[in-house]
Amino acid sequence: MPLLAASIAPDILDNTTVKQVFLKNENYIPADPEAAISPDDNLTKAIEMMAKHNLEILPVADSLNGKIAGSISFRDILSAYRLQLDEHDEKISISLKRRTLKMIVRSKNRVSVLKKD
């Protein structure tokens, strides 16, 4: 599974940290404390840990004291991925619309220059 996710959009998963996504819950009791992840790790590492330990929810341990700060689920990661992918697609769409408008304006300017001659 990590290979599939990383091949789809490596930038989104590599550039998003666990602390941007995880649910804060100090009362969370992990099934496997050995599988804890740091809030500073990226989502790619979280997916790899989930696959390695066959878990859908990972404990997030505070980097300084090692205490459980909360948890992150595969569903949380998918939601963050979809949100960022949608934002990325929206930016591309806006960019394409602007480019199209610029082309239309340029072509109109060229036509008006040709008509003057």
Automatic annotation (TrEMBL):
Pfam families per the UniProt record, alphabetical: CBS
Signal peptide boundaries: none
Gene3D superfamilies for this protein: CBS-domain
Origin superkingdom: Bacteria
Residue stretches making up the CBS domain: 28-90
Keywords: CBS domain
Identification of the protein by name: CBS domain protein
Annotated organism of origin: Pseudobacter ginsenosidimutans
Taxonomic path: Bacteria, Pseudomonadati, Bacteroidota, Chitinophagia, Chitinophagales
